[in-house]
Structures are given as C-alpha cells and as structure tokens.
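Hi C.,

You asked whether I'd gotten around to modeling the 288-residue construct. I have! Everything is below, sequence then structure, no commentary in between.
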Amino acid sequence: MATHHSRSAARLMMAPAVVLLLGWMLVPLTMTLYFSFKKYLPLRGGDLGWVGFDNYVRFVSSSAFWPSVLTTLTIVGGVLLITILFGVLLAILLNQPMWGQGFVRILVIAPFFVMPTVSALVWKNMFMDPNYGLLAYLWEFFGAQPVEWLSQASLPSIVMIVSWQWLPFATLILLTAIQSLDSEQLEAAEMDGAPAHKRFAFITLPHLGRAITVVILIQTIFLLSIFAEIFVTTGGAFGTKTLTYLIFQRVLESQNVGLGSAGGVYAIILANIIAIFLMRIVGKNLDK
C-alpha cells in the first residue's frame, strides 16, 4: 500500500512531464485563440489590431465553410465504413492457419507505416493516372475508357487512398480481438449445428464490438485533420476541400492568420463534439 510519502514523491517525479505536456497542448491552443480575435496579415501590414468575433463570423459565413464540413464528414464516414468492413474480413482471414502466415500479416500491416504524402503520390501516379496508371491499363484491357479518377471521381478516390492507409490499423486491432475469442464457444456452436454465418453474427461480431468502437474513435480523431492526401492529389479542387484544407488556404494562400485561427477553433469544436459523442458510444460498449 502506497504511503503518503511515496505518493508525494511520485507526484513530484511526474510533475515535469505533466507541465511539459500541458505546455505542449495549451501554448498552441492559447495562441490560436489569441490570433483568432485579431486581424493579422504577416505580408500585408502585420498586426492590424483587435477585430473581436469578426473572424469567426467571416469564416462561418464563407460559402466554402459548410461544404468543407460536409466533405470532411463524408470522407471520415466512407473511410470508417471501408476499414471496418474489410478489416473484419481480413482479420478473420489472417486468423486462419495458412502457409507463411507471419509474412502475410506483415504485408497487410505494412501500408500503415507509409507516409501519407508518399502513399498519395503512389496512388496518384502509379494507379490513378488516366494515361499510365495501372487502373487505366486494366480499363483498356477490358475495353473500357480509362477514368480520370481525381477529377471525375475525386471524393471516392480520396476515400480509397485514405482507406488503404488505415485498413492495416483496423485489421491489427480486430485481429487481436479475434485472437482473444474463446475457441470453445465456436466449437460448441459448431457441434450444435450452427452454420458459419450464425456463428459469426452471434459470437464473433458481438465479441468484436469493443474493438470496433475503439477503431472508430481513434480513426475519427485522426481523419478529421486529413490534409496531406488532398494537398498532393487534388489540391482541394473537385469538391475535396475539407475543413483542414480550408484553414490552410485562409492562412497560407490568403495570408490571413486571424481568419485561419478562427477556422482552427471551429475545427477544435467539431472534433470535440464528435469525440464526446463517440466516447459515449465507446463507454456504453465497454460497460457491457
């Protein structure tokens, strides 16, 4: 049992790390809030004084604001749907005995360690190029006209690229959950004559409930800030401008730090609303 002295010593040793972590989080947040109330144009006069909530009103009243929020949520929803669906299927497949099982698992998980910029460039030039991409050759082989993916199907293309990156993460978490499933339950159900689809629906899938909610929570937090894939592929054109990309345009392209900071505050609010909603879902699943 810890004594008062040992608890005090533990707090003292943890204090520097806690202070550093709080500073790392609070300093950028405080600066974002500070600049969101100012008109700050670095290349056009610098600090032009306080403007109150004018930046917030201008940002939310912009014609690109709500479409960017809708695009962000569409990408997040599409990626979650694909990664969870195929993640469950891949996890079940990888859990089966096979030759070279360890090597296959490494290949499946490998895309998660590729930088977003690199993976976006690979998909853009090697797969989705309408003239020299692999998909163009496949389309021509079957007698179809190649598709200009990044202009004709821009949003599905972004979802496909990001899903390829995050599918290994979902697969790894779900595979770990499947491996913790009691095999005796499945064997007993099989001996009772339950078909494979019912064993999956009533035993495997409920067991994966907690893992799926954790995957949804973690991926959503990261996907709300998606930027690199859009910057490399479409540059925000063809209806792919997310909230993060809109903030980038306001800060760097328009050189309006105050307006971009107000957009950053909106992004923080959106992320927290979604995170609180998801945490309630995760909490209910974990309490079951």
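If it helps when you're writing up: The chain has a mean pLDDT of 81.

Thanks,
B.
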